[in-house]
UniProtKB/TrEMBL annotation:
Originating organism: Pachyramphus minor
Keywords tagged on the record: Disulfide bond, Glycoprotein, Signal
Keyword Disulfide bond: yes
Domain of life from the UniProt record: Eukaryota
Pfam families noted in UniProt: Zona_pellucida
Domain annotation ZP: ranges: 1-109
Name the UniProt record assigns to this protein: DMBT1 protein
InterPro entries: ZP-C, ZP-C_dom, ZP_chr, ZP_dom
């Protein structure tokens, strides 16, 4: 566990362990919860489908495509929850595949037309 004051920046780095230099890692989704076993009931989206949901979220340049670096402000859940747990999902793409989610970034799904 990391002890962090409220509103202090929390810096994170995800690393892809692969010998393939042609891969790129991208933060797709990060969710916070006061319960490490339940990220649905009481949860807070920091990033969802590559789209920042928290205004303090920011990404940082990395010299290697195998690293994803980002930060957000520390917060706590109301109702006496002493800890916040994170669950992040990453996407791995081919380096240079500009049609991939890694390069397209924030994507929201289009709603389907229900006529016909």
């Amino acid at each position: 566990p990391y002890l962090i004051d409220l509103n202090q920046n929390l810096y994170l780095q995800a690393c892809l362990h692969s010998s393939d230099p042609n891969l790129k890692v991208f933060v797709d989704t990060c969710v916070a919860s006061p319960d490490p076993r339940d990220f649905n009931t009481l949860a807070y989206d920091i990033v969802r489908n590559g789209c920042p949901r928290d205004s303090s979220y920011a990404t940082f340049y990395s010299p290697s495509s195998h690293f994803a670096r980002f930060k957000f402000n520390a917060f706590e859940f109301i109702s006496r929850h002493p800890s916040v747990y994170l669950k992040c999902e990453l996407t791995v793409c081919r380096l240079g595949d500009y049609s991939s989610h890694c390069y397209r970034g924030c994507t929201s799904r289009a709603k389907r037309d229900t006529s016909s």
